[in-house]
Design a protein that fits this description.
The structure is a homodimer of 241-residue chains. Chain A contains 6 helices and 14 strands. The two termini of chain A are 33 Å apart.
């Protein structure tokens, strides 16, 4: 527990705080219990959410490491904290979808739960003031958010993460509907998976019952939010007997 | 005036009616005086609008023909009517933009009037129930609205139309901000430019004063809608002395 680290807050997001550490290349991430939706219009504080999302994110990043998918993750340092490599975040939300749900259902008129013929990758502009709008690649080029090669690499990484997580979740009897990733550039300009992977950023449905086990429980006032996150954590960490 | 044609109405859109003719490959288009915006929520009837848009569309299609850009246009048959080749419309709105305005300004946060570094082509899903949403190419593939080759061809045609119209309008002291095209497939599966090109489907700004000379006068309650359409028609058809 590196409690002698400087405590300068670098950035406070909706669900996490980022602190400077003694090592300029390393940040400390503190997961908060805050739950927000609809660009911050809906807010609550959910006991243990920070702890659970920290643990779940660590689990996923460590799993992806074994699949040769690099991330900013360095190590867990407390129940609600982890150290990560400092990266320059690419202001794109990379969304990978296996099944129609949420904004995709609204956009193309496919009912929630309809399996896509193949996974798709979407890009959204990480800009709260603009409401995180969908971008076509033309817009990404116009805004110079990523080069042609980076766009292709982001798609490739998104699909690789999807392949790894979809089969992992399947073994836990959970259907991976969709998820949002963020990537950053390290000092050398290499792309690294960053941010978090948790029920805040994924849609998880129980494969048997279809029960929603993610942030949609909060968005849609379904109740049992923390219980769902706990369920995800338990299924991920339980030993298969 | 082929008034012995059967009068079966094939389709009535917001601004035009399509009629079957004796020739199964030819349709008669009648331009209406109806003005609508915001997916039909705003409505008015503007005297001479149908006549002006028919004439302006004919002018543009004939001009594009000289630039080897084929369209469905056959010939004008009355002040408000033209004959066109029957095509199967691809349900995509192909939007070409030279300058930030309208929904692009809202999406990416660029002020209206900001010149884009290069023209861009956007695709929207022609679906009133869904509100004509922006589509990324991933969505077009998912919905099987167009093949990979067709998507590329639509972009190429859109940019070719832009090149032809931008320089034409410049010679009329009008800045071509953006426009929406629709394309269809003929019997042989060839892509043909279809629908209309008019102040209903383009943004035109006077190059000197910046005065809006298009449907935004209607959308934004600026008044002088028909006068603006008349001004476009006059500038297009006046002899340069």
């Amino acid at each position: 527990m590196e409690r002698d680290m400087p405590e300068e807050l670098l950035y406070e997001g909706k669900a996490k705080k980022l602190f400077i550490t003694e090592d300029p290349q390393i940040l400390r991430v503190e997961y908060k219990d805050d739950a927000t939706a609809f660009n911050g219009q809906k807010f609550d504080r959910l006991k243990d959410k920070g702890l659970l999302n920290n643990a779940i994110t660590v689990f996923f990043f460590e799993h992806l490491e074994t699949k040769d998918i690099p991330s900013h993750f360095v190590r867990k340092i407390s129940e609600t904290e982890q150290l990560v490599r400092r990266v320059k975040i690419i202001p794109l939300e990379v969304v990978v979808r296996n099944v129609a749900a949420g904004s995709l259902s609204k956009r193309i008129g496919w009912e929630e739960g309809k399996e896509l013929p193949h996974p798709i990758v979407e890009f959204y502009y990480k800009d709260d003031d603009l409401g995180d709008p969908l971008l076509a690649e033309e817009h990404i080029r116009l805004l110079e958010l990523a080069s042609e090669a980076q766009i292709e690499e982001l798609k490739k990484r998104g699909l690789a993460v999807n392949e790894a997580l979809e089969s992992l979740m399947l073994s836990k009897e959970i259907r991976l509907i969709d998820f949002k990733l963020e990537f950053g550039l390290d000092q050398k300009g290499e792309i690294l998976l960053a941010d978090e992977i948790s029920p805040d950023t994924c849609r998880f449905w129980d494969i048997e019952s279809g029960k929603i086990l993610d942030k949609d429980r909060f968005r849609r006032d379904l109740g049992g939010v923390t219980e769902a996150y706990l369920e995800i954590h338990q299924r991920l960490t339980e030993e298969i007997t």
